[in-house]
Amino acid sequence: MMHGSDQSIWGSDERQGAVKDTEGYVTADGRQIGGVLMELRNITLRFGGVVAIKDISFDIREGEIRAIIGPNGAGKSSMLNIISGFYTPSEGELWYKGAKRPPMRPYEIARMGVARTFQNIALFEGMTVLDNVMTGRLTHMHAGIASQALWWGKARNEEIANREVVEKVIDFLEIQSIRKTPVGRLPYGLKKRVELARALAAEPSMLLLDEPMAGMNVEEKEDMSRFILDVNDEFGTTIVLIEHDMGVVMDLSDRVVVMDYGKKIGDGPPDEVRRNQDVIDAYLGVSH
Amino acid sequence: MAYMSEGAEGLRSIPALLQRNAGTFGSRPAYREKEFGIWQSWTWAETEKEIEAFALGLLNLGVRKGDHVAVIGRNRPTLYWSMVAAQMCGAVPVPLYQDAAAEEMEYALQHCGARFVIAADQEQVDKVIDIQDDLHQFEHMIYVDPRGMRKYDHRRLHDYASVQNQGRAAHDEFVGELTARRESLGYDDTCVMLYTSGTTGKPKGVVLSNRNIIETAKNSAEFDKLGPGEEVLAYLPMAWVGDFIFSIGQAYWTGFCVNCPESAETMMTDLREIAPSYYFAPPRVFETQLTQIMIRMEDAGAFKRGMFHHFMDHARTVGPRILDGKPVGLLDRLRYALGSFMVYGPLKNTLGLSKVRVGYTAGEAIGPEIFDFYRALGINLKQLYGQTEASVFITQQPDHEVRPDTVGVPSPGVEIRIADNGEVFYRSPGVFVEYYKNAESTADTKDAEGWVATGDAGFFEESTGHLRIIDRAKDVGKMADGALFAPKYVENKLKFYPNILEAVVFGAGRDRCTAFINIDLTAVGNWAERNNIAYASYQELAGHPKVLEIIRGHVEEVNRSVAGDEMLSGCQIHRFLVLHKELDADDGELTRTRKVRRKIIAEKFGDLVTALYDGSPSIYTETEVTYEDGRKGKIRATLTIMDAEVVPGASPAMAAE
């Protein structure tokens, strides 16, 4: 099921035909979730003697909002870094769109339709919001140096086309009023939204969000939750998110993976995970 | 301007004006909207096609003659087109306030029995869906922005673009019917219905005819010599009569271009980009802008700040005179020209007001300093006085006769009469037809000869012939000696001081006036910080002797200004106190729109009012307050009562002193 992708505002849709596995499930609110987009099989990650992730397997399905939760140091960000290709797992396999993914550089993975935001905001502070979001289009720019330098021909046409996509994202996230504002002057909550805009500008089929609500007040969290749901709903983007705010996670996500000390201790819909004794122990703390 | 004379004969409706404009100004821009970072524009010819396609779509959905079509959303070309398309079908557009809660909308939608609702986006659609079970006549809703709407039940819900497409597809089938309906529109048919905000009781649906709108648009456009080259920014609520007159009435009459901002937040940027030549803003907008300028100038470097203040001082002395065409010395003119180059020009450009030829403010009183500031910069800001029931215009200020304290001369075609109790009555071609389904209120407001009561008290200045509004008629009273008592007039003067947030003046039936004052915590707090004055609470700051002295200074200045007014010099304030708490709507002291509830305050603080009149130097009081979470508490305070100097005037009230 390519839920919603036919309604995409983005012109071309490279995601079509990506997934062959058609078995899916229907969420509580009636959304049809598609087949497996990415599968992680027995992933282990070591840094020297430290085992950050130990033999974890789970899958991410087309169109779902998948959360990874766990106490501090559980290995959530490492997991996200493996998905985004920043880390290469020491053991295990990663299957993406039905094929085993070999070790790749992050930009190659970005080209495959994976975009992300960072726990600590990683924007260009001196550049405007618009320019920052335009950098999200980098993987879609192919004009040569000469054309770029002369601002003529292909480079120019490309810029116009890319700007149109970027403007649609700006409109979607309602940040028109700060379009020309340097990012350094923005409050924290808006910077987070700009980061999301940049990730969306890449027209990803999978969006990775590393603590999108960290440090936000209630109102900003509500806004961000709304945008995450809208992105998923409107463009059918698969979303993987790490978040500490349990209320947000339980409300937003379709399925939750719970990690503790590098191991997977729970996996399933929010209600199921909430009742899982291991998960309760991990959060309330028992002696290990 | 040959077409002007056709007004009465050929052009009897907005759709007829549209047809003329598409012919006369076909390739000129009619609408612009900033979308996706650039200004998209539509010529009059394109506009006619868009509107026609939508009107055909409406016919296709079954819009009947005389139906009410509600329009809800922010200013967007599509929504303006919807209104004209509804008119084309012989239906009546009813724009509603987009920020109204669902229950408030329910009243209006039920009252007018709207069969069709055109909503801007998901937010507005959700509100109507919430209440649709109680709307018995409601049938179809059309939305403009499809975002988030995909999963809605589309049996009674339609996308704007698809309605247009269906209209285009059904062109041959319905075009005859559409033409017939358009041509049958008469001068006295309803043009639009607007709901008044309803500060007292339920909102009333004001029915305005084509004659009301077109005659008013024609007269007011001639008054200010508006032409097809004007640019306006449409950013005020579409449900407000002013927006309907400016963005539809005058725009269609003269053929000028209406520009819609990208969003409410980008309004200032969009204003700068468009640089309107004809501009309207309520006093609040000008106040906020001025405060921002002042704060930013305080943060500027010493040289820039010095230059700003030097040239602004000069502008205040000669700027308004130059604008009014009065004689000014050559040297002063040269200095003003230099100031324009160095300060005024760049400042106006930043504000987006460089090209304003005609600017209006109305709705409430504007502070004279604020008004003069903009006039000093060379911006032709004027005041007008109007009402929904008058299709806006009752009086307005002509060029070269602008003053902060009057509302101008009667607008062209308007007759004005002042009743014995001071209430202002008017009669004009713009006078509304009726309140919809409310014959009783119509009869109360409008008499058989067409005179309409404004509810405001005022008088004509003999020397200039300008009207001055002093207060709501029901608040105007007499003092013990028979002198006129107009509390709001004095309160407004007090409130123009940034340090004073709210003032309540007493004096009806008494021999002298007294006042409660509320300080503005931001302004006074800022002052305290700069002067190293420590305070722990609002109450402590409000009772600080130095603060009381500052307020006394303001009150005495107001007294001097009031004394200069022969009719109202009895309203000088003899004694006042600064309240220990902010007047609050939660405590019932203000309405939700922050208007003072005089009676309730006088009752609640009865002990304080007594102290103001019995000569005591201070008073101990306890006041119950309601916190935001609904809990109640008590504030205890001892308030100092201050005497203020009054200026002996020629009035009988002073003679009695």
TrEMBL record, chain A:
Keywords: ATP-binding, Nucleotide-binding, Transport
Residues making up the signal peptide according to the UniProt record: none
PROSITE patterns in the cross-refs: ABC_TRANSPORTER_2
Domain ABC transporter: 38-286
GO annotation, cellular component aspect: plasma membrane
One Pfam assignment: BCA_ABC_TP_C
InterPro entries given in the database record: AAA+_ATPase (IPR003593), ABC_AA/LPS_Transport (IPR051120), ABC_transporter-like_ATP-bd (IPR003439), BCA_ABC_TP_C (IPR032823), P-loop_NTPase (IPR027417)
GO MF, one annotated term: ATP hydrolysis activity
Entry-linked SUPFAM superfamilies: P-loop containing nucleoside triphosphate hydrolases
Protein name (Swiss-Prot/TrEMBL): Amino acid/amide ABC transporter ATP-binding protein 1, HAAT family
Source organism: Salipiger thiooxidans
Taxonomic lineage of the native organism: Bacteria, Pseudomonadati, Pseudomonadota, Alphaproteobacteria, Rhodobacterales
Automatic annotation (TrEMBL), chain B:
InterPro entries: AMP-binding_CS (IPR020845), AMP-dep_synth/lig_dom (IPR000873), ANL_N_sf (IPR042099)
Keywords tagged on the record: ATP-binding, Nucleotide-binding
Pfam families reported for this sequence: AMP-binding, AMP-binding_C_3
A GO cellular component annotation in the UniProt record: membrane
Signal peptide: none
Entry superkingdom: Bacteria
Protein name per its UniProtKB record: Long-chain acyl-CoA synthetase
Originating organism: Salipiger thiooxidans
